Amino acid sequence: MHSLETMTILLLWLLVYHLSVLNPAQASKCLLQNEFEPGLMANGDFVIGGIFPLHYNQEMPDLNFTYKPGPVKCNGFDTRAFRWAITMKLAVEEINKRVDLLPNYTLGYKIFDSCAYPLTGQRSAVAVLNGPNELESPLCADAAPLLAVIGESGSAQSIVVSRILQPFGIPMISYFSSCACLSDRREFPTFFRVIPSDAYQVKAIAKLLRHFNWTWIGVIRGDHEYGRFALQGLLKELEGTGICVAYQKMIPLLYDRQKALEIIHVMSHSTARVVVVFSAEGELTPFLRDYMEQNVTGIQWIASEAWVTSSVFAGSEFDPFLGGTIGFGIRQGQIPRLKEYLTTVNPERYPTNPLVYELWGALYGCSPSWSNLSSHLPSCTGKETVRLQYSAYLNTSSPRISYNVYKAAYAIAYSLHNLIYCTPGKGPFSNSTCANAPHIYPWQLQQYLQEVSFTISGEKVNFDMKGDSIPSYDLINWQRGSAGNIEFINVGMFDGALESGQELVIKEEAIMWPGHQTEVLVSVCSNSCAPGFRKAVRRGQPLCCFDCVPCDSGKISNETDSLDCIACSEDYWSNADGTVCIPKVVEFLSHDAMGLTLTVIAVAGACLTLAVFSVFLYYKNTPVVRINNSELSFFILLSLTLCFLCALIFIGEPTSWSCMLRHTAFSITFSLCISCILGKTLVVLAAFTATRPGNNLMKWLGPTQQRIIIFCCTLIQVLICTVWLVASPPFPYRNTKYQQSKIILDCSVGSDLAFWCVLGYIGLLACVCFFLAFLARKLPGNFNEAKYITFSMIIFCAVWLAFVPAYVSSPGKFTTAVEIFAILASSFGLLLCLFTPKVYIILVKPEKNTKQHLMGKDK
Predict the structure, then answer these.
(1) Are residues 807 and 827 in the same domain?
(2) Taking 70 as the threshold, does the pLDDT of residue 139 lie above it?
């Protein structure tokens, strides 16, 4: 585009050079190759230009270079753009009537049609530089005093026009060009605008998308700088927001129906139900016609300010397809007398203006009878009164673009006024000088435009250093009106001057969504992940397309659409839903069902042992009790009672004292019990061998010696336990490693060596007992106690040998339960094996409770 404009300027200068140098005969005569007259014009002391898209499409001439090509033909009269042009005319007339603004000076204007096309806009820019009429003041004559230009509508046209005006230093104020690229002061030093930059519009659209959780969108743009820069700005704003673009499509500048149908096919088959459109109404009009022909519905349109208030789409036929459209429009303002002024425009008052004829054709479908325009419309008088009916031309209830044109004209007037009435010696130019009125240069006016500040209709108007105005938008919603047409309803606003987070205000209850629904349409690639899940991105797809994966055990996500799960702290675990960290279950052998069962069994064992003790005590003088040292039997019964009771220490929450007591009490009581059994075994062995001649073994195993043996054997275990408690005692231990979802409260043995030494010593005593009892198992007598001791030691050793692997492999509280079970099983084994036969004889077979029977001499 830039090279095209540069080439045009070079061709113009080459033409001048050719006429003046190569053909001196025609140097004083410039020949116009074509005519391009202004649509509206008026003379004045200072002239400003206006460029408006009075038609919204164009027909290119045949360029086969065999004959002179005709001009570009503009089609599709745009009544809304004509209203903008009339607004500029009204503003100039108002300014000329004011006594406080530019007194003694008048403004003139020249208004040209850009046809909503850059090439025609380029031609308008060249034409506006010339005199009031190209035929009367050709290129070689003196230029009119053109100080500024109000234009253009589309950003693509404004880029072209601004670059053509730039070498002449002529400032340009756009009323509808919002491309962020135009804020570059190095490329467009003479460009101003009274519409916010798209840099703010894309911020507003991004906030709108985030507000309604539309994370999966499509984008359609026009084939021009406005669409390209708006798309780039939107993509930049969407970075890191979780919003993804499903597709990006471009409407060709020269409309191609086949390409349009391809875009519509993508739209209808995409899961993205929200479509953002950066386009002008010119290329969008035929696209939407094809869109409606394909009968596509259910799409939420997000309109850019370029078409969100376009009356071209206000007809009832658009409602089923575009109803519910939402977008940011230019803030509306008030223009006094605009409606009345528009009604004064008619063919009778402007009999030679072809634009007014086209307006009449658009409003009434007829052409004035005296019109020389070729028209297939029926003729009319041209005196019809413009009715206050709904039309793009008469829609002045909420002027937006017209209001921008109005502000632009007044910005030029106030700047020119400040320039003319500059205080000498306080001017902005070199040596603090002022401009020489009325010989004013455009670049001097630009200095004042940059600093102008005034209030109109209650709004303050000024420009920043980039030539931009204050960023502010109305949020517009397309709703069905009472007549079936589309009405543009204000449902909120965006003010870029406010603090972050407060810019966007939305009245959601006032919004009507597509299909006349009251609920927000959903547009996501993947449904939101509930708390307890995390997002897992699908390979090769945008970030918005993901699967919801449950959080691993011990991790949670307490927010929707969490990217990752958070690990709980050491003492906490995730709940079943994975949404909250809850304290871990503290597990120990408590007085639950298992603990109570073991408690009952232990108490029952102790009671049973005491019952046997009572029986033995009652029958202490009978042979069965006395036959093998009744004192040892009582010691064994008391130690077994302690063995049963020490199991109770293992039940309950471990503490420092219980941990030290449970292992030492268990080891000492069992050592005492096995020591007593060892003493009994020695007595049995000595008693049955004492009958042999010369055997004096019994005198070494009297009651005193037996007590010494028991004391010494038990003392060894006491010493081991003492060293254990001093060096590395057992202590309470919170085990969080074995089972991550629980905290296992247990007693750490402190020293593994000491623990196994204690068990090993008990095992050693049991093995010695077993060996000695095994030797005496076949000694004569009806009641050989050695056989029962042998059997009891077999059971004892079997229980504790089985205990070792079970103890090592059992988790949590079951480790303690296994240890208690071994204590109880071995205790019951000793009790039953050693004392059941004696109790049976005492209580059931008293006739056998004689010395002769027990010695086997009753036969």
Answers:
(1) yes
(2) no
What is the DSSP annotation of 434-457?
Answer: --BTTB--HHHHHHHHHH-EEEET
Does residue 805 surpass a pLDDT of 70? yes
**E strands of 722-783, at which residues?**
731-735, 742-748
Lowest mean pLDDT among 216-220, 326-330, 390-394: 390-394
Task: Please provide residue 488's backbone torsions phi and psi, each rounded to the nearest 5 degrees.
Answer: -95, 105
Task: Based on the fold, state whether residues 788 and 846 are members of the same structural domain.
Answer: yes
Are residues 12 and 122 located together in one domain of the fold?
yes
C-alpha to C-alpha distance for 139 and 130, rounded to whole angstroms: 6
Distances (CA, A) of 229 to 183, 352, 552, 630, 670: 11, 41, 44, 108, 90
Looking up tokens 């027909």 gives 59
Contact 3, 71 (CB under 8 A): no
**pLDDT higher than 80, residue 769:** yes
Closest CA to 359 of 567, 617, 85: 85
As a dihedral over the C-alpha atoms of residue 498, residue 502, residue 508, residue 511, rounded to 10 degrees, the angle is 30
Say whether both 445 and 537 belong to one domain: no
Residues 47 and 114 in one domain: yes
In a domain, residue 358? The reply is no
| Range picked from 685-699, 750-764, 789-803 for highest mean pLDDT | 750-764
Residue type, 630: S
Residue 362 lies in a domain: no
Q: By three-state DSSP, how is residue 230 classified? A: helix
Residue with tokens 């006739």: 847
Residue 365 lies in a domain: no
* Same domain (yes/no): 815, 674: yes
* DSSP per residue, 601-645: HHHHHHHHHHHHHHHHHHTTTSHHHHTT-HHHHHHHHHHHHHHHH
Q: How many domains does the chain have?
A: 4
Q: Mind spelling out the 3-state secondary structure of 660-696?
A: HHHHHHHHHHHHHHHHHHHHHHHHHHHHHHCCCCCCC
Supply the CATH number for residue 31's domain. Answer: 3.40.50.2300
Structure confidence at residue 189 (pLDDT): 93
CB count within 10 Å of CB 48 equals 28
343 found inside a domain: no
Helix or strand or coil: residue 354? helix
- Record the tokens describing residue 199, joined without a space: 């840099």
Query: Coil, helix or strand for 246?
Result: strand
Structural domain that includes position 545: 533-583
Let me know whether 550 and 685 are in one domain: no
CA distances from 317 to 275, 314, 326, 483 (A): 20, 8, 18, 12
Q: Where is pLDDT greater, at 74 or 390?
A: 74
427 lies in the same domain as 540: no
The stretches of 701-751 forming alpha helices (DSSP H) are 703-727
Q: 12-31: per-residue pLDDT in tens?
A: 443 444 444 434 444 445 55
Which tens digit of pLDDT belongs to each residue from 288-307? Answer: 999 999 988 889 999 998 88
**pLDDT at residue 672 tops 50:** yes
Q: Using CA atoms, how far apart are residues 778 and 479, in angstroms rounded to an integer?
A: 111
